UniProtKB/TrEMBL annotation:
<keyword id="KW-1133">Transmembrane helix</keyword>
<keyword id="KW-0472">Membrane</keyword>
<feature type="transmembrane region" description="Helical">
    <location>
        <begin position="50"/>
        <end position="66"/>
    </location>
</feature>
<protein>
    <recommendedName>
        <fullName>N-acetyltransferase domain-containing protein</fullName>
    </recommendedName>
</protein>
<feature type="transmembrane region" description="Helical">
    <location>
        <begin position="6"/>
        <end position="22"/>
    </location>
</feature>
<keyword id="KW-0812">Transmembrane</keyword>
């Protein structure tokens, strides 16, 4: 396959893949890359209408990525302390049962009544559930789940950076068993350190 033909196909594939990604940030990044490649391809072959269209898309994607980066600290996240037995918690668990089972395969909702539960909100939307069981000065995480559209690390950064939340729980560290975490890379990116069988983070 000639080089320029490969480049053209690569741009098209990236644009198509971007449309299948639920994360807003990832969509913008992939769409920008695909459109940029398409812009270069169309300029090289003098296809000016498509070059102009893709160039404008690149500018639009770049603008919204800048907005997302600028607004990361002000995205309207909040944490709501709830009773683990509340109907809203049960509804969230039922609605996202399959995805939760993938992210936390050993999660047992029967353990929630003995834990502290929190709903993670984005403005007026419930986007996640966080629950831990305080034991001494360590909070043992039962679940840290957010809906797919918000999996860009910012909800977790907001949660684990919320010092007042953990002060209220009288814990100075949180831990999750390594075997309970289907995605240990997520916890590593949130500042957790590998302590053998546990992933641990100071708060």
């Amino acid at each position: 396959m000639p080089l320029w033909e490969f480049i053209g196909w690569a741009g098209s594939v990236l644009v198509i893949v971007s449309l299948m990604v639920p994360s807003i940030r990832r969509f913008r990044v992939l769409n920008l890359l695909g459109s940029f490649i398409a812009t270069v391809y169309n300029i090289y072959f003098g296809i000016w209408p498509y070059a102009a269209m893709n160039g404008v898309i690149v500018i639009i994607d770049a603008y919204w990525l800048w907005r997302l980066t600028r607004d990361d600290g002000e995205r309207g996240y909040s944490v709501l302390d709830v009773d683990a037995g509340e109907s809203l918690v049960a509804r969230f668990l039922d609605r996202h049962a399959a995805a939760i089972a993938e992210a936390f395969p050993r999660f047992d909702r029967a353990a929630l009544p003995s834990a502290r539960a929190f709903l993670l909100m984005h403005e007026d939307e419930v986007i996640g559930l966080f629950a831990l069981r305080p034991e001494g000065d360590t909070g043992h995480i039962l679940i840290d789940y957010v809906t797919e559209r918000f999996r860009d690390l910012t909800p977790g950064a907001f949660l684990y950076g919320n010092a007042s939340l953990f002060e209220g729980l009288a814990v100075n560290s949180v831990a999750v068993p390594l075997r309970d975490a289907a995605d240990p890379v997520y916890f590593a990116k949130q500042g957790f350190a590998d302590r053998g069988d546990l992933l641990v983070r100071g708060v």
